[in-house]
UniProtKB/TrEMBL annotation, chains A, B:
GO terms for molecular function: DNA-binding transcription factor activity. It comes from the Bacteria. This is MarR family transcriptional regulator. PROSITE patterns: HTH_MARR_2 (PS50995). Residues 19-155 form the HTH marR-type domain. Pfam families: MarR. InterPro entries: HTH_MarR-typ, MarR/SlyA-like, WH-like_DNA-bd_sf, WH_DNA-bd_sf. Gene3D superfamilies: Winged helix-like DNA-binding domain superfamily/Winged helix DNA-binding domain.
Length: 155, 155
DNA sequence: GGGATATACTTGCTTCGGCAAGTAACTTAA
DNA sequence: TTAAGTTACTTGCCGAAGCAAGTATATCCC
């Protein structure tokens, strides 16, 4: 039972009413919402969100390829998780693995034409899912500030 | 390959620049952030977020107990997932299952004193995780509006 | 009252993800 | 130049969650 030692007293500062309201709404957004988006993507496109993101980041990369650890950090997954995602996408022909010429330990995940086509087929569903589950509910917010805040959260 | 038929044209309406900025930042927030919060809770408190939420909602319920499906909907998990969470928490003595007197098919998950103590031990970590990973990055936002929007997303 | 249906939960099976250990290839330093 | 260390990726093992099927109880309707 190695628990963290006592937290600094600041951690116990009570939440303001507004913060509390945000915190109360958070589980829905952080836990249920990703599952809902994933489920729609899976149902309508047979792609998980991480698979979709992989195709997307690859499509935007120079030469449509990224080294494994670059892809991992783009999709914010562990390297082992990324290995498996690439395995799946490779087995369906959407990605090819290419040896890296400059570093024999390294592989490039390279988006195939089929992979690009798959992405183009899938993105309307992804956009629809994000709109329906998320964007459409934010009408009252200042999106510019929200985007900045979310980028800030991201780091 | 049963794919959804063509989406309504509205789904293809392009994103505004602000919407796009939000969407770009979304994977970090919806996928990486929950993992980060979970990891901190697991590391420092040996509790998953769903376990923590279960204890929390039970502590707030009348008689500190809820029927399984009530708990499931509170924590927004499937019933089978809830069964397993309750199994885990029960095996550690934090929850007891009590037969429902009015309905023989039903069980109450009931928070024990040990469970309440566990919750009280864990909440500062949870609060700290939420603050550090999320709340502290929202300084620029109108939290009242954000809370309303998030509640809106939740439904 | 008793069969058909519905409800509340549990279990079996599968998938996904992380960590830690393993392997191969590169780099550094003696 | 070769042994030690580091890096890039993969594999083995595990836990968590969902769906679909199973079980037990309740309700409905004749």
């Amino acid at each position: 039972m190695t628990r963290k030692p006592t937290l600094p007293p600041d951690a116990l500062r009570p939440l303001t009413a507004d913060e509390d309201a945000v915190v109360r709404a958070l589980p829905s957004v952080l836990y249920a919402l990703p599952r809902a988006i994933d489920a729609q993507m899976q149902r309508e496109q047979q792609l998980s969100n991480t698979e979709y993101l992989s195709l997307m980041y690859l499509s935007e990369a120079p030469d449509r390829q990224l080294r494994m650890h670059e892809l991992a950090s783009a999709i914010e997954m562990s390297l082992s998780g990324t290995t498996r995602i690439v395995n799946r996408l490779e087995s369906e022909g959407f990605i090819k693995r290419l040896r890296c010429e400059r570093d024999g330990r390294s592989w490039h995940a390279s988006l195939t034409d089929a992979g690009l086509a798959r992405l183009e087929e899938a993105w309307p569903t992804n956009l629809d899912a994000i709109r329906r589950h998320f964007l459409d509910h934010l009408k009252e917010l200042d999106l510019k500030k929200l985007a900045a805040a979310l980028r800030n959260v991201a780091t």
